[in-house]
């Protein structure tokens, strides 16, 4: 290989290294919100993939974000982002495991234990489950009341030690550490306490309602907590 060709090849290689992150971000922006699942083929920040079941998701910020808790509770209320940040905070570090196979090790999440919000609302004796709704207008999830009261289930507003970004479900998402990541509903807007479990978006399409990592969905992944 001649000197000129060698230098040209090295220059193209360096250009590729510099251009790769912007190109990746451009691809993710182009396909963001794609309900076909194509975006699952694209790597996102830190090894994550971007998934959405709608064509677009509105952005919410500190001024217009609200999280409501209602249903079988004595004290329904609405939380702003500032309200949630003012509550006692918990930081957890666990692997994140997607049911499609990818895993992101040692991921920090921070927020309010869901049990704290439930206790503040006053759950009624007839309650057995929780239904979660999201401001994308389509996604739902569920947990039993016993699962929801685990200390490793958060209403999270931080991930990887920074504010939770829109693509990762911000400003607030559910985080269920020991379950496959589809249980950790993004863009969380509603917590409704119910008598019975109501299967969520993916459960209605064949995924397990109880999504323990390594013990559900026919997978044998190592547990995340």
Report on this model:
- The chain has 225 residues and is α+β, with helices and mostly antiparallel strands.
- Helices cover 21% and strands 26% of the residues.
- The chain has 4 helices and 10 strands; from the N terminus they run αββαββαββαββββ.
- The chain has helices at residues 3-31, 81-86, 114-121, 145-148; strands spanning 67-71, 77-79, 90-97, 103-113, 129-134, 140-144, 153-159, 162-163, 173-176, 188-194.
- It is globular.
- The chain starts with a helix and ends in a 31-residue tail after the last strand.
- Residues 3-44 have low confidence and may be disordered.
Give short descriptive properties of this protein.
225 residues, alpha+beta, five-stranded mixed sheet, globular, disordered N terminus
The major pleated sheet works out as: 5 strands, mixed
Secondary-structure-based class equals alpha+beta
Shape: globular
- Average predicted local confidence, pLDDT: 85
**What radius of gyration results from the CA coordinates?**
20 Å
Number of helices: 4
Q: Roughly how many Å apart are the termini?
A: 53 Å
**SSE order:** HEEHEEHEEHEEEE
Contiguous runs where pLDDT drops below 50 for at least 5 residues: 3-44
Query: How many strand elements?
Result: 10
Q: Estimate what percentage of residues fall within beta strands.
A: 25-35%
Helix share, percent: 10-25%
Strand order of the largest sheet: 2-1-10-5-6
Q: What is the strand and helix layout of this fold?
A:
Layout: H1 3-31, E1 67-71, E2 77-79, H2 81-86, E3 90-97, E4 103-113, H3 114-121, E5 129-134, E6 140-144, H4 145-148, E7 153-159, E8 162-163, E9 173-176, E10 188-194
Parallel strand pairs: 1-10
Antiparallel strand pairs: 1-2, 3-4, 4-7, 5-6, 5-10, 7-8, 7-9
């Amino acid at each position: 290989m001649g000197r000129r060709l060698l230098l040209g090849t090295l220059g193209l290689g360096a250009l590729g290294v510099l251009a790769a992150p912007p190109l990746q971000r451009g691809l993710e922006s182009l396909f963001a919100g794609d309900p076909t699942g194509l975006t699952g083929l694209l790597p996102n920040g830190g090894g994550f993939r971007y998934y959405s079941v709608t064509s677009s998701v509105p952005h919410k910020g500190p001024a217009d974000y609200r999280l409501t808790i209602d249903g079988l509770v004595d004290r329904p209320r609405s939380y702003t982002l500032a309200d949630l940040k003012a509550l006692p905070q918990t930081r957890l570090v666990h692997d994140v495991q997607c049911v499609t196979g990818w895993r992101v090790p040692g991921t920090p999440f921070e927020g309010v234990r869901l049990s704290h919000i439930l206790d503040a609302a006053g759950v009624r004796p007839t309650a057995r489950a929780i239904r979660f709704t999201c401001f994308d207008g389509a996604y739902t999830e569920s947990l039993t009341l016993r699962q929801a009261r685990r200390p490793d289930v958060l209403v999270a507003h931080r991930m990887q030690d920074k504010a939770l970004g829109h693509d990762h479900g911000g400003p607030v998402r559910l985080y269920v550490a020991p379950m496959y990541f589809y249980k950790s509903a993004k863009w969380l807007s509603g917590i409704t306490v119910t008598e019975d479990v109501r299967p969520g978006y993916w459960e209605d399409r064949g995924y397990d309602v109880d999504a323990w990592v390594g013990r559900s969905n026919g997978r044998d992944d190592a547990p995340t907590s």
